[in-house]
Amino acid sequence: MQNALASAGYPQRVLVACSGGPDSLALAAIAAYFGRRGHIDGHPVAVAGVVVDHQLQPGSAEVASRTAGVLRELGLSPVEVRTVEVAPTGFGPEAAARDARHAALDSAAEDLACDAILLGHTLDDQAEQVLLGLARGSGTRSLAGMRSARGRLLRPFLGLRREETLEICEVEELSPWHDPSNADPAFARSRTRVEVMPVLEEKLGPGVAESLARTAAILQQDADFLEGLAQETYLSLVRREGDDAWLPEDAVRELPAALRFRVIAKAAADVGGQQPGYGRLQAAEALLRRQGSAGPVELPGHVSVYRLSLSDLEQERSVSAGAPAAGGPRDSADAGPREAARCGKLVFRHQKPSQQ
């Protein structure tokens, strides 16, 4: 905890997100210790708490209220309960609950003037995240798992095992609430936790969770490097026409594959789309090979990407300038524009969803 807050620049007010489970309750107990001291390394700190009631289980309001009472007994102040409505997002119930929870945490941090939000994820959560990413065939960013710090979200316990948080609760004489959904086989993460990880530990030996978490730490460095390079490359290539964004075909085609796919994804996000899956990225990237259709290829978030060829571009210029279309007589003055537009372009356009 001390290292996490030091790395974050010693925020003066922190908010502990607590569900009442052993991980977040142990987190609250450790944060409360520093709150009672009033400082970390001589830097003043105050600790508040928030409990998010997702209303997904019978008796959730009672659990939230009881947890808030425990946080107040630990010395956290103020402590709030935030009730949320979990609306379907199309990405599954776990993602919908996470989105609603993070929105509530952000709102609470703003209202309570907190500079950091503490989350109780452990090394076991990190290992499960990496394993799920592998099973889904996700890319580097997903396999890199959760960050110990992202914006004002801090995860001080990413280096601790789940058993250690249970031990903290025992030492602090706290009785954590055990969420029944954590053992519900209807959820992929629960199946990974209850069924898959124990088998891996049994068959491959101890240390599997640590190895998966170490993989995440290594891939975070790789993902950060590629992300920064892709952002620089994208900004150097992108051009805009109204609400559309386009990329020069030749320049994108010459990029290494790792950058090419990321640049295409950035263009889709730039016009209001969502992160495309690998299959959709492959379909968009295939437009660069000039084989088959010139598009459009539909990407998540109502984004269409299509290729405009040299002849299309020349025809557009000819029509706008009142000159002969491509294939007609041209003089030497046309050499400059033709050379400048020797390649086509990939156009990314956000399509408004149907009102139907």
From TrEMBL:
Residues 320-330 have a biased composition (Low complexity). GO terms for molecular function: tRNA(Ile)-lysidine synthase activity. The keyword Isomerase does not apply. Pfam families: ATP_bind_3, TilS. Residues 250-306 form the tRNA(Ile)-lysidine synthase substrate-binding domain. Coiled coil: none annotated. Keywords: ATP-binding, Cytoplasm, Ligase, Nucleotide-binding, tRNA processing. Residues 317-339 are annotated as: Disordered. Its EC number is 6.3.4.19. ATP binds at residues 19-24. It is found in: Cytoplasm. Residues 14-193 form the tRNA(Ile)-lysidine/2-thiocytidine synthase N-terminal domain. It comes from the Bacteria. It is an enzyme of class 6 (ligase). Belongs to the tRNA(Ile)-lysidine synthase family. The N-terminal region contains the highly conserved SGGXDS motif, predicted to be a P-loop motif involved in ATP binding. NCBIfam families: lysidine_TilS_N. Ligates lysine onto the cytidine present at position 34 of the AUA codon-specific tRNA(Ile) that contains the anticodon CAU, in an ATP-dependent manner. Cytidine is converted to lysidine, thus changing the amino acid specificity of the tRNA from methionine to isoleucine. This is tRNA(Ile)-lysidine synthase. It comes from Paenarthrobacter nicotinovorans. The gene is tilS.
